[in-house]
Specification:
The protein is an alpha/beta fold. It contains eight helices and eleven strands. The strands form three sheets. It has a five-stranded parallel β-sheet with strand order 2-1-3-4-5, sandwiched between helices. It has a four-stranded antiparallel β-sheet with strand order 6-7-8-9, with helices on one face. A two-stranded antiparallel sheet has the order 10-11. A hairpin with a 2-residue loop joins strand 6 and strand 7. The protein is globular, with a radius of gyration of 18 Å.
C-alpha cells in the first residue's frame, strides 16, 4: 500500500476494465475512490462525495463527458475540484470542448497507471503548497484564494478553478505582459499538454464574469492585468 493520501477521487468511465484498473491503482496509493459507469451517475455521486479530483471519459452513453463536466462545474461542491479528462479522443476540437466545459487537464489513452499516479500525486503536492496564499485586492475587485471567490463591490461569486488561478496569477503580477506559453506553464504546469487556445478560452470566460476593464490583450504578445 502507498502512503495514505486522504484525498477523494471520482472516476467516471463506461469501460468496466478501465474503472477496475484505475480504482485498483488509486486505492493502492491510499486514495478514497468512488466510480461511476456513466456521466449522469457521476454527477449524482459528485454532489454527495465531493471529490477533489475527477477522472472523466468523453465518450459515454446517455451523457458524454463534456456535458458531465459542465454540470459538475455548476455544482457549488465542485468549485475547487480538479477535473481531468482521460479519453481516446485526440482531436483538437474535443480538447477545446473539454477545456471550454471547465476541465483542468486532458490526457489521451492508453492509460499508463504509474505515470498517472505520479501526476496525481504531484497535483496534490502542488495544491498543498498553495493553500496559504493571501487575498489580492485591486480597486473594487478582491480575489480570495482561500475560498476561490471573487468580489466586485458587493457582488461575490465563484469561478471554476483554472479561471480563478489565471485571474489570480495575472492580478498578482499587475501591468506585466505574459505570453500564452508563460500562462500555460504557470497555471497548467510543464507536465500538462494543453493548446495555447485554451488560454484564450479561459480569458474570455473570466472577462465575461468580471468585465472587460481588467485584463488587456497585447496584440501579438499575450495578456496583462491593468492597474493604473
Amino acid at each position: 500500500m502507498g502512503v495514505k493520501q486522504n484525498h477523494k477521487v471520482l472516476v467516471v468511465d463506461d469501460d468496466p476494465d478501465i474503472l477496475e484498473l484505475l480504482k485498483y491503482n488509486l486505492v493502492k496509493e491510499g486514495y478514497d475512490v468512488k466510480i461511476a459507469e456513466d456521466g449522469r451517475k457521476g454527477v449524482q455521486i459528485a454532489k454527495t462525495f465531493q471529490p477533489e479530483l475527477v477522472l472523466l471519459d468523453i465518450m459515454m452513453p446517455s451523457q458524454d463527458g463534456v456535458e458531465t463536466c459542465r454540470q459538475m462545474r455548476e455544482l457549488p461542491e465542485m468549485v475547487n475540484a480538479h477535473i481531468t479528462f482521460l479519453t481516446a479522443r485526440a482531436e483538437e476540437y474535443s480538447e477545446v470542448a473539454a477545456f471550454d466545459a471547465g476541465a483542468d487537464d486532458y490526457i489521451t489513452k492508453p492509460i499508463k497507471p504509474r505515470a498517472l499516479m505520479s501526476r496525481i500525486s504531484a497535483h496534490f503536492r502542488k495544491e498543498k503548497k498553495s493553500k496559504t496564499t493571501p487575498k489580492v485586492s485591486v480597486g473594487n475587485l478582491t480575489i480570495d484564494k482561500s475560498s476561490y471567490t471573487v468580489t466586485i463591490e458587493d457582488n461575490q461569486f465563484t469561478l471554476p478553478k483554472k479561471e480563478f488561478e489565471l485571474l489570480y496569477f495575472l492580478a498578482q503580477n499587475p501591468n506585466k505582459v505574459f505570453s500564452r506559453d508563460d500562462l500555460l506553464q504557470n497555471i497548467w504546469g510543464t507536465d500538462v499538454y494543453v493548446l495555447a487556445r485554451t488560454v484564450d478560452v479561459h480569458i474570455r470566460k473570466v472577462r465575461e464574469k468580471i468585465g472587460e476593464g481588467f485584463i488587456t490583450t497585447v496584440k501579438g504578445v499575450g495578456y496583462k492585468f491593468d492597474v493604473l
